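User: quick one, sequence for these tokens?
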């Protein structure tokens, strides 16, 4: 039996353009860390993402690129995981063509708008596809996605705590320090 060798690309979809960030009901500007990692619309389905990648490979590399992906049907590319909430995906492709897929992702610059009823109508939300990891197994790609998600949660929580408690903690520490200085001075006089 022949084993088909594949590569798994863990990708992150980022939205660096502030005009594409979701609006907040308050007057406070959104946290840039959260806004860049904002959710992707539900119109981006695994099948549509695979189609976008195949079209990008065909545009960049022509028939040779499509042949490396597995032929005219290009069944070699499958989306194993797509989360619109975290804008994360895991793509399986042939081992011989993972660099073609990576370069095609680099040149892709948009996903369907959130308000669209169906994908492919021409209106796109500008984005950047960032390859986070290339792995030989699905398990390692999943572990990396979980590790990165946990790290982002901790980073955002720390930023919120600094923002909320920054003024309070700074003021309390200064008051406590001044009280300690006064009590130490009084103790020296005795």
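Assistant:
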């Amino acid at each position: 039996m022949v084993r088909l060798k594949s590569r798994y690309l863990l990708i992150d979809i980022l939205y660096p353009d502030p005009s594409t960030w979701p609006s907040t009901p308050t007057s406070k500007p959104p946290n840039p860390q959260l806004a860049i990692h904002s959710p992707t619309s539900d119109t981006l389905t695994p099948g549509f993402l695979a189609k976008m990648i195949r079209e990008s490979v065909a545009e960049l590399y022509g028939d040779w690129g499509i042949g490396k992906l597995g032929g005219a049907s290009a069944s070699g590319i499958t989306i194993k995981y797509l989360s619109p909430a975290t804008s994360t995906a895991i793509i399986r492709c042939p081992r011989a063509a993972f660099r073609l897929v990576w370069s095609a992702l680099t040149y892709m610059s948009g996903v369907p708008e959130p308000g669209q009823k169906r994908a492919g109508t021409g209106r796109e939300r500008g984005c950047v596809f960032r390859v986070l990891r290339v792995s030989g197994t699905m398990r390692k790609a999943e572990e990396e996605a979980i590790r990165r998600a946990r790290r982002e949660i901790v980073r955002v929580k720390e930023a919120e705590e600094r923002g909320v408690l920054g003024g309070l903690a700074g003021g309390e520490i200064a008051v406590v320090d001044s009280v300690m200085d006064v009590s130490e001075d009084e103790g020296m006089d005795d």
